[in-house]
Amino acid sequence: MIAAGPPVVVFDYGSGNIRSVARALTAAGCAVTVSDDLPTARSAAGLVVPGVGAFAACRAALREAGGDDLIRERYARGAAVLGICVGMQVMCEGSAEHADQRDSADVTGLGLLPGHLVRLTAPIVPHMGWNLIDPAPGSALFTDEPGQRYYFVHSYAVPWPPPAAADPPVADAHLRVTTADYGGRFIAAIESGPLAGTQFHPEKSGPAGVALLRRWRATL
Amino acid sequence: MTALAVRVIACLDVHDGRVVKGVRFRDLVDAGDPVASAGAYATAGADEVVFLDVSASRESRGTLLDTVAATAAEVGIPLTVGGGVRSVDDVDTLLRAGADKVSINTAAMADPLLLTRVADRFGCQVLVLSVDARRCARATGSGFEVTTHGGMRGTGVDALQWITEGERRGAGEILLNSMDADGTRDGFDLQLIRAARAVTSLPLIASGGAGEAGHFPPAVSAGADAVLAASVFHFGLLTIPEVKSALGAAGVSVRVLPATCH
Q1: Quick check: is B225 in a domain?
Q2: Could you tell me if residue B259 is inside a domain?
Q3: Contact residues, chain B, for A185 at CB < 8 Å
């Protein structure tokens, strides 16, 4: 396949609807490779980390596939990484979600992005469907177009701003936090240096999602 | 009103790779092609698409998977596939083909643990519990019973208790079909929707009975998070934008596609 655009690898570590992510990135003008090959993933202009299902399962699969070091190494040298849904969550500090629903152990994330995931407190959970977002000032991922909706499906999220007692104020001038509201404000998308993440699914968000991925591509 | 949009979902009955009911989209070369039909619904602003496989044969399963894969490659909105899903392997195969969610109905009645196994393996977000409910003379607590095999067989199982059990077992969403309202085009079964809303905190998709745009807002008032229709869309009696306009006029949040050039 001959494809123009920056080379982007969708990291295939056994989680997520890889096919949809690849389709949307291709539509956004990326030269997409779906791969679990670490050298390929290291050298790409952009790395996309998808993820659906339980946090702990994704976290374990990512670690097993060598994803921890891959993401840390790219972050250290400023190479772009985009996490989608649980692919973003695993880059945060940790989650209260647990695979067996019995113990309350906090599952540890990579800690490259701020915040701990907690269960949503809205009356209807999961948060499923198309919701509005409040774009971060200076965001590269969003435009100011009002009324734009993206497709969410999740039961856990990072509350934002973080609860006062849990986290010290984040002193990262480069942090761009875009929020949504569903029983309280939470991180809908985040940009921090070369890292970006969306709690929603751009690959399932129709034209709005492709447009977002096109803006991400422009940062590569 | 909350910011989250009420979803308008188009359902397609698919048999051996073809849409069963005639679809009358203008500008559609092949009205019986589910991939093209799903694409047309997405372009019209549908928030999700559901394929209901009404084929009975094992051989048709491969055709369905090809349809799902082709649709996932074309359509950038969520795709749910249901009909004949009997095992964890069936779910796995559909998800790998490109389905985002899988709906389970009859097989879960026979083996409720199937719900648990699917949710444990893939997460609750992929699992839609489809409940075909109808009023019954038998003594169920709520007066609604679950039916199987496309509404052909009553089970005597209380529909509301079954929804509660489905939630406990890890379903991520309830697709509630009223077999009393289905096909009547007299409006959604508001009594059933209210009763289901009262017992579950899962997203609730109301299905069955839609005949005109004015039928949709009451379903939302009754507690539906999403509204689904098949035949009224198939036969061009209603369009997705007409339904969304009616919802919007009633003060319901909907996703409106940005204006495009025609």
Answers
A1: yes
A2: no
A3: none
Q: What is the tens place of the pLDDT at every residue in B64-116?
A: 999 999 999 889 999 999 998 999 999 999 998 999 999 999 899 999 999 99
Task: Respond yes or no on whether the N-terminal peptide bond of residue A161 is cis (omega within 30° of 0).
Answer: yes
Tens digit of each residue's pLDDT (9 = 90 or more) over A52-64: 888 888 999 999 9
Q: Which ipTM did the prediction report? A: 0.93
Domain tally for chain B?
A: 1
pTM: 0.94
Domain A7-217 indexed as CATH 3.40.50.880: yes
The parent domain of residue B111 ranges over 7-249
Domain chopping of chain A, boundaries: 7-217
Residues of B with CB below 8 A from A20's CB?
72, 76, 98, 100
Cross-chain Cβ contact A203/B95 below 8 Å:
no
- Our CA-based measurement puts residue A113 at a distance from the nearest CA of chain B, in whole angstroms, of 24
CA-nearest residue of chain A to B122?
A53
- Whether B145 and chain A come into contact, CB under 8 Å, resolves to no
Q: Is residue B262 part of a domain?
A: no
Residues A105 and A125: their CA atoms lie apart, in Å, by 21
Residue B207 counted as domain residue: yes
Say yes or no for a CB contact (<8 Å) between B76 and A20. Answer: yes
Inter-chain contact A204–B4, Cβ cutoff 8 Å? no
Collapsing DSSP to helix, strand or coil, A70 comes out as helix
Which of chain A's residues have a Cβ under 8 Å away from the Cβ of B124? Answer: 126, 155
Q: What is the CATH number of the domain that holds B139?
A: 3.20.20.70
How many angstroms separate the CA of residue A29 from the nearest CA in chain B? Answer: 15
